[in-house]
Amino acid sequence: QVQLAQSGAEVKKPGASVKVSCKASGYTFSNYGITWVRQAPGQGLEWIGWISTYNGKTEFAQKLQDRLTMTTDTSTSTAYMELKSLRSDDTATYYCARVFGDPDYWGQGTLVTVSS
Amino acid sequence: DIQMTQSPSSLSTSVGDRVTITCRTSQGIRNDLAWYQQKPGKAPKRLIFGASTLQSGVPSRFSGSGSGTEFTLTISSLQPEDFATYYCLQHNSFPYTFGQGTKLEIK
C-alpha cells in the first residue's frame, strides 16, 4: 500500500533552518511528483511547492522561493523540504503528498515550531 | 496566480441535511479541481478528483460537479462522521491554490 512517512516534530529558533523528510513506499517513486503543503495552527491549507521526482524540476510559492529548497533521493525514495531563515510565522504542520495532477496520498504531517 | 473563492466558510448543519459547498476560480481551470476532507489533527483526505470523480472508498453521498470556473461539492445526507473541514484545490497551473475551507459544525 502507498505510504508517505515523514520525519518527526522539530523546534527551531528564528533564523535557523529545518529539513523535513518524506519517505515513500508502495509505488514507483519516480512515476509521481511530490508536493508540500503547510498549515499554520488553526488556519487553512497553503500550497508551498512541488518537485518532479523524475528530473528534479521544482515550482515554489513565490513568497517562499528565496528560502525554500526541495530535493529527492531516488535511491531511498525520499523527498526533502528545507526551509531557511525561519520566522515565527513559519510555525505550521508541513505535509508531503504524492502528486499526479492533484495530491492523492499524504504523509502524516510534521509539526515545525519556530520559537525563541 | 489563480484565486479561489470557497463558500460558505462555515455551516451549522444537522445529520441528514443536504450540504452544498462552492468553489469559484478567477480563471478557467477545465476540471482540474479536487476536494479534500480534513479532520482535526489529521492529514487531508481526497474525496473527489477531476471535479467529479469519486475517490475509491469514499461514500456515494459525496459528489462533485462543475467545470471552468465554478465547482460544487455536495453531501446528499450528512452523517456524523462528515463533520469536518472541506477544501477545494486547483491544480491547473502553478502555484496550486486551495480554497479557504468550509467547516461543517453540528447544529
Write the layout of secondary structure elements.
The complex is a heterodimer of chains A (116) and B (107).
Chain A: E1 3-6, E2 10-12, E3 18-25, E4 33-39, E5 46-51, E6 58-60, E7 68-73, E8 78-83, E9 92-100, E10 102-106, E11 110-114
Parallel strand pairs in A: 2-11
Antiparallel strand pairs in A: 1-3, 3-8, 4-5, 4-9, 5-6, 7-8, 9-10, 9-11
Chain B: E1 4-7, E2 10-13, E3 19-25, E4 33-38, E5 45-49, E6 53-54, E7 62-67, E8 70-75, E9 85-90, E10 97-98, E11 102-106
Overview of the structural elements:
The complex is a heterodimer of chains A (116) and B (107). Chain A has no helices and eleven strands. Chain A has 116 residues and is mainly β. In chain A, the strands form two sheets. In chain A, strands 2, 4, 5, 6, 9, 10 and 11 form a seven-stranded mixed β-sheet that branches. Chain A has a four-stranded antiparallel β-sheet with strand order 1-3-8-7, with no helix packed on it. In chain A, strand 9 and strand 10 form a beta hairpin. The mean pLDDT of chain A is 97. Chain B is mainly beta and 107 residues long. Helix content of chain B is 0%, strand content 50%. Chain B contains no helices and eleven strands. In chain B, the strands form two sheets. In chain B, strands 2, 4, 5, 6, 9, 10 and 11 form a seven-stranded mixed β-sheet that branches. Chain B is globular, with a radius of gyration of 13 Å. The mean pLDDT of chain B is 97. The chains are: A mainly beta (116), B mainly beta (107).
Summed up:
The complex is a heterodimer of chains A (116) and B (107). Chain A has 116 residues and is mainly β.
Helix content of chain B: under 10%
Structural class of chain A: mainly beta
Question: What separation lies between the terminal Cα atoms of chain A?
Answer: 40 Å
Low-confidence parts of chain B lasting 5 or more residues at pLDDT below 50? Answer: none
Q: What is the beta-strand fraction of chain B?
A: over 45%
Radius of gyration of chain B: 13 Å
What string gives the helices and strands of chain B in order?
Answer: EEEEEEEEEEE
Count of runs of 4 or more consecutive helical residues of chain B? 0
**pLDDT average of chain A, as an integer?**
97
Estimate percent helicity of chain A: under 10%
Strand % of chain A is over 45%
Largest sheet of chain A: 7 strands, mixed
Shape label of chain A: globular
Output the structural class of chain B: mainly beta
